[in-house]
Structure to design on (191 residues):
């Protein structure tokens, strides 16, 4: 893993480092994003969309690379031909930015490049003990756990262990089918 800045077209390095890495890197797993359901698209676009474009540009520079994009179940809530997009979930900047980023990656895959997008649900780990005040789902889970309560809500949360998803993604083969891969339960049922 290499640190960088996806908001910078050269990913936080100078031209020499960028070109050197462009010939040495063979796989890219792009998961950098602002994960905040409260911010508008304009506040997130630079990181989530432009960052994806910058990372994709790097993947097309130098040696051939495989590109894996970490998307979100939020991007799958819009279906072509839907009459009322608002009710399908593209209500916040995060969902909108992941939808746009995913479409860019899927377009690259459809053009024959080695690119794949994984849609993740809400990730957590069993050792979750601190709150990210900006994350509504995380706040709800931790708060109800601390209070010893089970909320009475008509909402289905698709919570997935991050350790499980990390292993699953690392074991996958890259594909150029052009379709995102869902790693969440896209048809949840209450039991």
């Amino acid at each position: 893993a290499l640190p960088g800045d996806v908001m910078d077209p050269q990913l936080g390095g100078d031209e020499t480092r960028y070109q050197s890495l462009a010939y040495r890197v063979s796989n890219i797993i792009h998961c950098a994003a602002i994960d905040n359901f409260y911010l508008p698209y304009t506040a997130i676009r630079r990181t989530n969309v432009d960052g994806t474009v910058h990372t994709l540009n790097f993947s097309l520079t130098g040696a051939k690379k495989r590109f894996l994009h970490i998307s979100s179940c939020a991007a799958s809530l819009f279906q072509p031909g839907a009459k009322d997009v608002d009710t399908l979930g593209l209500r916040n900047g995060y969902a909108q930015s992941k939808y746009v980023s995913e479409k860019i990656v899927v377009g690259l895959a459809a053009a024959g490049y080695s690119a794949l997008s994984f849609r993740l649900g809400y990730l957590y780990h069993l050792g979750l003990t601190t709150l990210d005040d900006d994350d509504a789902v995380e706040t709800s889970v931790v708060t109800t756990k601390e209070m010893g309560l089970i909320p009475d809500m008509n909402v289905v949360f698709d919570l997935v262990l991050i350790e499980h998803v990390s292993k699953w993604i690392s074991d996958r083969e890259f594909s150029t089918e052009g379709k995102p891969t869902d790693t969440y339960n896209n048809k949840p049922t209450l039991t």
In short: The helical segments are 15-24, 41-59, 93-110, 136-147, 162-171. The mean pLDDT is 78. The first strand starts at residue 27 and ends at 30. The chain has five helices and six strands.
